[in-house]
Amino acid sequence: APSTPMTSSALASIKAPAAALRAPAAVSRARGRVAVAPIRAVSTAAEGSALREIVAEISGAADPAERVKKLIAMSASLPALPDADRSIANRVMGCTAEAWVDVSLDADGRVAIRGASDAKITAGFAGLLARGLSGLEPGDVLTVSDDVVADLGIGPSALPRSRANGFRNMLETVKKQCRLLLVDGGVTAPPFPSLVVTADGVEAKGSFARAQAEYLEPAADAVDALVAELEAKKIGIVAHFYMDPQVQGVLMAAAKRYEHVFISDSLVMADAAVKMVREGGCESVCVLGVDFMSENVRAILDDAGLESAKVYRMAAEDIGCSLAEAAQDRKYYDYLAEADGVENAVHVIYINTALDTKANANAVVPTITCTSSNVVQTVLTAAAQVPGVNVFYGPDTYMGGNLAELFTMMSTWSDEDVAAVHPAHTQATIKDLLPRLRYFQDGTCMVHHMFGGDVCDAVRKYYGDAYQTAHFEVPGEMFKLAMEAKRERDMGVVGSTKNILDYVCEKIDEAVARNLPAGERLSFVLGTETGMVTSIVRAAQAKLVAAKAAGIAGIEAEIVFPVSADAVTPVAESESVALGGVAIVPGPAGGEGCSAEGGCASCPYMKMNSLDALMSVCAKIGTDAGEALLTAFEPRKYEAAEDGPSIAALGCVPILHMRDFQRDGAFSDAFVEDITTRGRAK
């Protein structure tokens, strides 16, 4: 329920959270600085294999053209793969040519590799692997580094990056099949549920995937009922990507008939609400998200002079966010106090925090908002524009740790590779920045916390050759996996929900452009909240339908849900009838962040925004009795200041700094001056 309105007088001098802020959340981790992990050396080729000798023979040729000839000649060493074995399971993903490899064990338990490709040079690399690795034990194959591609010495003029990445993907496909051979009992089916999207429909694999797929095509009467309420009562809807599949399906269908339905990440929800009210004539806005999102919508509408518009949450109870609440805790203000008085200090705060948090933080230290898609550029730009800058990032611990991990990786890259990320930086400047990067140690999103080591081990074992996607908030293991795929094979993305959606669409476009005769399946491991799947599936299917209409068929997109081993609950035989005969359901018997509806990678707070809740709120809007009942559904409102800017306006300052940066590619002069003078003045 909404709390007592807050005033903003004297906020500019705040050094600690205002008294009316939320109660502290329970947290337990200790604060710390960046830990730089050691770089582990790996061998290029397995000890005792013929691969090392073959690579040396090819790289020893006089020039790249001669090396290419020797590599192509290796195709003669490739045991043939019959057409019947050229299956999706053996297809090399991410390869510009059609290629398949099959790994089995011979009578002595040693690796035997077969393969096929329509491209001579690709068949040559498959032959190199077959000749160099056959006869090894599966575990020995796993020690081979993908540096073997560079060690051939062919160079980019004869071996373009896309082709080289295809070779690395082929080696990863061989490794994945070897991992499967090491599983007790031999090859097993991949353990995670998935949705396979084609131009003709969606196939669900596993009970969790079936639960997700059920609402991709919503019931027409549910869509009709919602649209009728929205049109009759001039209601707008802003919803986060992480809604459950039933709500997402209905909202996306409704949006085709009613323009004031908007689904996005948190950054632009409030902007969309302002547009709906100011330009679209909406009198009420339903916010499907957590409380800080509805509070932001309310505050931005008020600041825009649109106080008469009603804003409603989907529950009378708190719709919390573990991450936003961590930034309301006393520990976060203690952390910011460390920056108070530090020269050249800047606080980079994640967008998924409340406006009063941003206002209070900026009163202590110059603060700029970031998103998961621009956080890297924000920190690097700060280091480029402010010599000796001290960066304090928060509140997301995983994102902070991933920043440190990324910069540690970059400190070993060439200057050229570093400049590709940010043109003002070199390996030396990244090394110089690392000791001056601090991040909060007590804030996590409960959903992304679930992508831990066990899940990543299974992803690597069963989906090592797939496209890896990860939100910047996931734990380090998942982040490293996606970064490795991105860096080593150009088959990964780390970023925001929209970055992930755009990446999936981009890879489908590339597959359509390749138009391989046998078609291909692209597998994407979804390293973020499962609510994203509706948007991804609809975007993917639209592209595949358009491709089929243009005569390009046979392309499939598989969306894999990396649900942890603890994210399924056995159902007793007596209960299975009520659950439609399903033997297991997503969600552990107990545990924060998991539920039967959403599985382990699913936010329980977001799932409070159900279709029933939305329809109930809409039904009450427009009547005196109904709106009286909705009082508890209103977001907390910041009271306008009698003198000086409102809390909403002060909370928007860090956001405006970010928007200046997004527009200009640089911090504003005023913001740089604040960073360089405020600490010195103290």
Summarize the model shown.
With 682 residues, the protein is of the alpha/beta class. 43% of the residues lie in helices and 13% in strands. The chain contains 27 helices and 18 strands.
Give the CA-based shape: globular
Report the radius of gyration as a whole number of Å: 27 Å
Q: Tell me what portion of residues adopts beta-strand conformation.
A: 5-15%
Number of helices: 27
Please give the share of residues in helix.
40-55%
Number of β-strand runs: 18
Q: Can you summarize the main beta sheet?
A: 6 strands, mixed
Name the strands of the widest sheet in spatial order.
4-3-16-15-13-14
Ends distance = 40 Å
Task: Note down, in words, how this protein is organized.
By secondary structure, the chain is an alpha/beta fold. It has 27 helices and 18 strands. Strands 4-3-16-15-13-14 form a six-stranded mixed beta sheet, sandwiched between helices. It has a four-stranded parallel beta sheet with strand order 6-5-7-8, with helices on both faces. Strand 1 and strand 2 form a beta hairpin. Helix 2 crosses helix 3, helix 6 packs across helix 19 (453-463) and helix 10 (269-278) crosses helix 11 (291-303). The two termini are 40 Å apart.
Throw out a few tags for this protein.
disordered N terminus; alpha/beta; 682 residues; single chain; 18 strands; four-stranded parallel sheet; six-stranded mixed sheet
